[in-house]
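Its record is set out here:
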Amino acid sequence: MKTILNSKIKHREGYRPFAPIVLQQDFDKYFISKTTEHPYMLQAPKCTPHALKTVPAVCHVDQTARVQTITKENGLVLIFFQNIKIFQGYRFL
């Protein structure tokens, strides 16, 4: 998926991973950090083995990801939160 999106849409280098958005309540399933609060994509926590297997397009070569967590309280990202909740049965992250 990363190759297709980079070549057809993003037009950028193939080594660049995508930055994931994840519900804060699901953070620990995919990432390892001292906190589950990453609202601004300022840090790159380690990916869990589950993330490396299920969503490799968001994992950097050093097995980290520049993740953003969202909650109902995140203000404008409420739409993202609602959409992710709708598709939880088809969870990409």
